[in-house]
Amino acid sequence: MPLDQAVRNPRVIGGRPVDLKNIKQPVLNIYGKQDHLVPPAASTALEGLVGTTDYVALGLDVGHIGMYVSGRSQRDLPQAITHWLTRRKS
Question: Where are the domains of the chain?
Fold first, then answer.
């Protein structure tokens, strides 16, 4: 389903439509820049759909599987997540 159609016709969970604008907490959107299954544009579109003002997109130069198993991801991703979480702790 194309993104614009998905937004106009939201999914229903538990009998209630899902409204991404209700997401107010910080969002760290991690995506693979070389992902051919979930193209970067499909991931980064989330920024304009959620209701938070604290949105960070982190694109790694990996593909779909590489996001989970590549040496680059294993090296860079935990550090990036830790940094993002540390900046937001109360």
Answer: 20-86
Indicate whether this model's pTM tops 0.90. Answer: no
pLDDT per position as a tens digit, 7-59:
666 788 899 888 899 999 999 999 999 999 999 999 999 999 999 999 999 99
Cα 45 to Cα 29, 33, 90: the distances in Å are: 10, 14, 28
Q: Are 62 and 70 in contact (CB under 8 A)?
A: yes
Distance separating alpha carbons of residues 60 and 27, to the nearest angstrom: 16
Q: Residue 32: is it exposed, middle or buried by C-beta count within 10 angstroms (0-12/13-18/19+)?
A: buried
Give the chain's end-to-end CA distance (angstroms, integer): 39
